[in-house]
Amino acid sequence: MASFGWSVLRGAVRWLVLNGVMSAHTHDDIDWADRLAQLRMADTLDADALAPVARRLVAGLPERPAVVDVGCGAGGMSVLFARELGRRGGGTVVLVDTTPELLAEARRVVSEAAAGNVEVVGQSGDLADPGLAGRVPAADLVWASGVVHHVGDQQAALRTLAGLLRPGGVLAIAEGGLEMRCLPWELGVGRPGLEPRLLAARAAWFARMRAGIPGSVAMPYGWPRALREAGLQDIESFGALIDHPLPGSDLLREYVVHRVGWLGESAGEWLDADDRDTVAALTDPDGPDFLGRRDDLFLFGAKAIHCGRLR
Ligand SMILES: C[S@@+](CC[C@H](N)C(=O)[O-])C[C@H]1O[C@@H](n2cnc3c(N)ncnc32)[C@H](O)[C@@H]1O
Q1: What pLDDT sits at residue 23?
Q2: Which residues line ligand 1 (CB under 6 A)?
Q3: What is the 3-state secondary structure (H, E, C) of the chain?
Q4: Are 93 and 67 in contact (CB under 8 A)?
Q5: What pLDDT score was predicted for residue 25?
Q6: Distance 217 CA to ligand 1 centre (A)
Q7: Closest Cα to atom 10, ligand 1: which residue?
Q8: What CA–CA distance (Å, rounded) separates 260 from 294?
Q9: pTM, full prediction
C-alpha cells in the first residue's frame, strides 16, 4: 500500500479507537502502534535468521495445519509461516494482537505473502484473557514472540497459550536471548561504551515496566520450566543468530537510529545528562554526529526460542 493509503488507514483506525468502536489495550502501558515502523524494520532485518526457524517449526506439523501467532506485531514471522505453509500444501495462519494498527498491518503483509492455498485470519485478542481459546481456532502450532513478558502473570499466559493447542500441537515462544548490539565502542561523541549503558538503563526500565503491570507476579524460574508447568512435554530450546556485519545497509542505519532514539527515550531517566546529550546528538539528522551517516554500524544479537508439545 502506498504510504498515503497507509496513513489514511492508520487515521481511520485511530478514529475508531478514540471513539470506542475498537479497543487498543495492553497491560504494559506501551503505545505499540507508535512502534510500527521499528517493528517493520526489525521484521525485515530478522527474516534471514527466522526463516529456518519457521521451516523447522512447520516441518513436523500435520497436513494443512493451523498456525496461531499471538502478539503478532507487524506480522514478520507469520509471513515466513505463510510461505512455509504455501510450499507444503497450505493451511491457516491466525494473527492475534491487541493493537488494531498492528493487526491490520500484519494481515496486509501476511495476505500478500500467502499463496492461494493459505488462509489468513486476523483476530483481536488479549493474551491475558483466559478465555482466548474460545476466540481462535484450535492450533497445531502456537507462536508467541516477545509478548508473554508484557502480561502480568506470565505463567498463566503460557497456560492460556498451551490451551490453544490441539493434542500433539507445539507451543513455541521467543523470549530472552542476547540483546542486540549495533554501535562501536567509541563514537567520537560522548563517553566510550554508550551501548552497554543504554542496555543497563533499558534493563532498569524493563524491571519497572514488569512491576507496573496490574496483577504482575514473579516467575522466578526460566522459560523451559515455565513451559513444563504449563503442562507441555518434549521441551527444547535453541537460538537464532541475527548477524548483519558492517558495512550495514541503509535500512540497518535507519533501524539503528530508531533503536538508539527509542532506548534513549524509554530509558532516559536512568541515563546521566552526558549520555542523554550523546543520544540526542547521534539521532539528530541535521547534526555532525548523526548515526544515519556512519559506515561502521552493525547488528548482532540472538533470539532464544523455547518449545513444548501438548501430549
Ligand atoms: C514486542 S512486540 C512483538 C511483536 C512480534 N511478535 C515480534 O516478535 O516482532 C509485542 C506485541 O504484542 C502485542 N501485545 C502486547 N500485549 C498483548 C496482549 N496482552 N495480548 C496480545 N498481544 C499483546 C503488542 O501489540 C505487540 O504487537
Answers
A1: 41
A2: 26-27, 32, 39, 70-73, 76, 97-99, 102, 126-128, 145-147, 150-151
A3: CCHHHHHHHHHHHHHHHHCCCCCCCCCCCCCHHHHHHHHHHHHHHHHHHHHHHHHHHHHCCCCCCEEEEECCCCCHHHHHHHHHHHHCCCEEEEEEECCHHHHHHHHHHHHHHCCCCEEEEEEECCCCCCCHHHCCCCEEEEEEECCHHHCCCHHHHHHHHHCCEEEEEEEEEEEEEEEEECCCCCCCCCCCCHHHHHHHHHHHHHHHHHHHCCCCCCCCCCHHHHHHHCCCEEEEEEEEEEEECCCCCHHHHHHHHHHHHHHHHHCHHHCCHHHHHHHHHHCCCCCCCCHHHCCCCCEEEEEEEEEEECC
A4: yes
A5: 55
A6: 19
A7: 147
A8: 14
A9: 0.91
For 173-199, write each residue's pLDDT tens digit.
999 999 999 999 999 999 999 999 999
The segments of the chain whose pLDDT lies below 50 read 1-24
pLDDT in tens, 104-137: 999 999 999 998 999 999 999 999 999 999 999 9
